[in-house]
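Recap quiz, item 2
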Amino acid sequence: MEVSDLKIFHEYKKNKRRGLELVYERYKKYVYSIAYHYSGNKEDALDITQEVFMAVFRAFGSFKEQYSILPWIKKITVNRCLNFLRNRKESISLNQTTEDGDELQDIISSNVTTDGSIVCKDTKKALEAAIQKLPDKQRMAILLRHMKHMKYDEIAETMKLPAGTVKTLIHNGRATLKDNLIKQGVWEV
Amino acid sequence: MIQNIDGDNLKKEMCDKMDTALLQDYLEGTIDTFEKLIVESHLTVCKTCRRELSELKLTFWELGNRNNYEIEYPEELNDISEGLIDKVLGIEEKSLARKVVEIQLNNLRQSKKFIEQIPGAKKTPEIMKKASKSLSKGVAREVKKGLRKIVASK
């Protein structure tokens, strides 16, 4: 059963453990879904989720009751996602394989055309793959806008970027996604 | 503006009257009435931008489709919180071996309680003894009968 933020604060005052458990229950899927679509795999998504909640739990005692928890958790999630992959990038190898067994270097260098050689398994996978290829900030901005339905100014605040920058990230991200989906032959255009 | 796919190379067919950002804003409904008029009148004469607009619409549709973001939540997601809360609250994480021992002890306690609730559970050893005796008598009797029949048939 989902409980309100107010209930969480009350429970936390009575019993810290119970309060933190409720925070986790309420927001774990939200955090994990962003982390999963951002990182593109389960293991990284779980690591990011763990980092986010560690930060949330540590600071929860000083969080003021009059604010709602979600925007705060969003900020931490976005921040941890961006930092996580920034740190990981140094160790990424092009010989790394995807779940389907394709090597990254093959995917990057492949010339996929509409009339062509690759028929996508489905649109969902094609979109996931296209989102994964976006630069980090574009990817995050696109996910917050379209998956989490956030407004531009909310995204700007969450990502700590000017609204104009966020708009540009989203415009460019969509244009790149469109081209990528066409290349993958998702639509008959 | 529009990008046509020509073999392996992307060949750009530009429309310098409008950029893709304006078309995206048009689709999102975030441009003012004047800009909207300009875009719409341009679309009536520019095939390239009409095509771009169609492709953007499809992209918006895919991005807005909730099914495209559905994921499976792994079991591990339910196991993360306990350790984190222990750490934050300053309780040392219990070792795995200790956890296993605790689970086993708990299972034993529960099993004992369960057995105690079974009707007649305390008389079980006695009943088992009686049952075993009756069984052996019954088997011996049937074996004898069988032998007699074999001998008679000869």
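The longest helix of chain B spans residues 124-153.
DSSP finds six helices and two strands in chain B.
End of item.
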